[in-house]
Design brief:
The chain is an all-alpha fold. 97% of the residues lie in helices and 0% in strands. The protein is built from one helix and no strands. The mean pLDDT is 90.
Length: 108
Amino acid sequence: MSTMSMESVLRSIKSAQTEADALLASAQEDANKAIGDARRAASEAVSEATEGATADARSTIDAARAEAEAEADKVRAEGAKAAEALASAASGRTDKAVDLLLNAIQDA
């Protein structure tokens, strides 16, 4: 083999090696970008799921609070009605009680 053809083969090998190195670097860069994009997408998905779960929990708590407040209002209204009925019943018996006391004092 001549010196010229040996140099040509060596240059071709060197060129192919340089090209392969460039392709490998480009592939590595693309892989790193794809991994970064996937991580960002996964992080966003987790963040959105967390926000959704928090909103659902808040909604459930708000609904339970509203239901409890409605039940408390109902119990308060029933209590006020019962207290009013007791006061009314006691008011009607006051005259009777006074008469009984006065009669007991007079008889004593």
